[in-house]
Amino acid sequence: MLAGIIFKRCNRIIFICFILIGFQTPNLLRGQSLERIEPPHWYTGMQNPHLQLMVYGNDIGLLIPEIKYDGLQITDVHTTENPNYLFIDLQLSKDIKPGSFDILLRGSKGAKVRHRYELKKRKKNAAARTTFSNKDVVYLITPDRFVNGDSSNDSIKGMKEGINRNDESGRHGGDLKGIIDNLDYIQDMGFTALWLNPVTESDQPKYSYHGYATTDYYKIDPRYGSNKDYVNLSKLAKEKGIGLIMDMIANHCSHEHWWMSDLPTNDWINYQNQKYQETNHSKYTLLDPHAAEIDREIMTHGWFVPRMPDLNQNNKFLATYLIQNSIWWIEYADLYGIRQDTYSYPFKQFMSDWTCAIDREYPGFKIVGEEWVNDPSVISYWQKGKMNPDGYTSCLQSVVDFPLSMALTQALTEEESWDSGLIKLYESLAQDYHYPDANNLLVMADNHDMSRIFQQLNQDIEYFKIALTYILTTRGIPQIYYGTEILMDHPASNSHGSIRSDFPGGWKKDSINAFTNKGLSDNQLEIKHWLKELLQWRKNNDVIHNGQLTHYAPKDGVYVYFRYDTEKILMFIINKNKQETELALSRFIKFVQPETSATNLFSKEKFKLDSRIRLSGKSITCLELDN
């Protein structure tokens, strides 16, 4: 059997075979060691019976693996041009039992390495897990900037960057314990899903706090806590009705990733061992039937920046590694969803394979992809169910609605005209025909990569209320960035470090505490109370989650839309004008009949609608109509 495996592998790397059958010099098998096996463990009962282990260690590729465990079979063994890697293909039977077993890696002259590996029992009904939906409001947190719950992990010995709260681009000390300690606050506000910017290890020399330069895909950054802390956060959040969404990055890793000093293959990284090539960010080339191939290549192969190597997902081993990593985290941390960074930058066929592999394992599980363009025809290309001219399909259910976000700001800051102002918001929503399922889009006023909405609206509280009310009452799944509830802004700088500033009260010596309301201004207190009421109201109104939407073209600075189902009719009226405005209701006869009774959703005032209604300046009126 050993000879059969040896000769099977001889057609790949002949010199390794000679070594294994005895032609090596005496020292070649000395010092062999096993540094890691990934995934670190796996699960029984998975839909896909195949598992590929990446084994890494000094000269580990010169050894032959043996496993004896009922229901488990080695189907193939792959070596690469780097003798420090071995890829082992396993097949798990449907009735395989959870348990532990030895992976024995054996050489020809008695050299051997042993590793204990575990197959864990999959959680009951894990494949049918719940996932985020229109019922949710997602609270987005930059973990380093929220709450420092454990000061002992602010700086970790051996890691390249320690804490420096005076540096806006440095680490400030926020962590998982800080989030766990304030789950009651998140729940009380009315948020039902939690998206954290990446928390996997990012051991960069500087600017590591944002997390988008991964150095270990299977490890939580120790400055945030441990893998167990992350699992505990998911568990405790779930007990409070809050699901955990994990931010993942398939396009690139860090130049400090552990494998960068000893790459598995000669094509693990795009433009490997070549002159640095930055991506052209030309996303239209991926859809353009006339695009030059060189432009497409640079878009997909090019790097974001020199410190973020671009991964080659066309490498079959890397593709499998990334897919298994995502599935491992879903199972391990009982995830509620995934947010995939820079969705269109990896090879698009891989992204289809990745989403569909997850969908097969967890039918209906939602992934939201980031495609930052102001064009629904481009964003919709990636969504599940889209019939594209080139035949491309994927299993991506949700995409971030950047066009609506941009239109919202334009609608409230531009002068009203036939082609500017509120018409931008109307026309953005009117392009929902591009999407297979517009109700599954993630809608937002801002996020961690753009100016905060209060800043975008020139610190106008009335327009701020209009923007947030719209995001929480239009179609789609709303996301709110941490600190929005207390009007966080950044008037002195538009840098990312300022946008992602510290949440007041998250550090012991903070003079302002947004959790207890200490030191908040009257405006901040008003907005916090107002947003909490709106969020709690939304949580219990299915018409907002699943109802239909009809809107009317803006006229004279007023934009009207309805959400309705068989039980309720809600009417929302945006008056952008600074002055009080009178609105004639005859256009809305489908919903507003003569003498229709209306109730203000928040003041609870009841009144009859006749032919006209008076609107306060710079306001959004929210009414429930008699059905």
What does this structure look like?
By secondary structure, the chain is α/β, with parallel strands linked by helices. It has 16 helices and 26 strands. The strands form six sheets. It has an eight-stranded parallel sheet with strand order 16-15-14-13-10-9-18-17. A six-stranded antiparallel sheet has the order 19-20-21-26-23-24. It has a four-stranded antiparallel sheet with strand order 1-3-6-5, covered by helices on one side. A hairpin with a 5-residue loop joins strand 23 and strand 24. Helix 1 runs antiparallel to helix 2, helix 10 packs antiparallel against helix 11 and helix 13 runs parallel beside helix 15. The longest helix has 18 residues. The N terminus is likely disordered.
Strand order of the largest sheet: 16-15-14-13-10-9-18-17
Q: Assess the beta-strand content as a share of residues.
A: 15-25%
Mean pLDDT: 94
The main sheet comes to: 8 strands, parallel
Characteristic terms for this protein:
627 residues, alpha/beta, eight-stranded parallel sheet, six-stranded antiparallel sheet, 16 helices, 26 strands, 21% strand, elongated, disordered N terminus
Brief synopsis:
The protein is an alpha/beta fold and 627 residues long. It is built from 16 helices and 26 strands.
Secondary-structure blueprint:
Elements (H helix, E strand, L loop, with lengths): L1 H9 L3 H10 L12 E3 L3 E2 L6 E7 L7 E4 L4 E8 L5 E8 L6 E8 L5 E9 L17 E4 L34 H6 L1 H7 L3 E4 L3 E2 L14 E5 L6 H13 L3 E6 L44 H9 L14 H18 L3 E4 L7 H14 L5 E3 L6 H4 L18 E2 L2 H12 L8 H9 L11 E3 L8 H4 L4 H13 L3 E5 L14 H4 L22 H18 L2 H5 L1 E8 L2 E7 L4 E7 L5 E4 L11 E5 L5 E4 L2 E4 L3 E7 L2
Parallel strand pairs: 2-8, 9-10, 9-18, 10-13, 13-14, 14-15, 15-16, 17-18
Antiparallel strand pairs: 1-3, 3-6, 4-7, 5-6, 7-8, 11-12, 19-20, 20-21, 21-26, 22-25, 23-24, 23-26
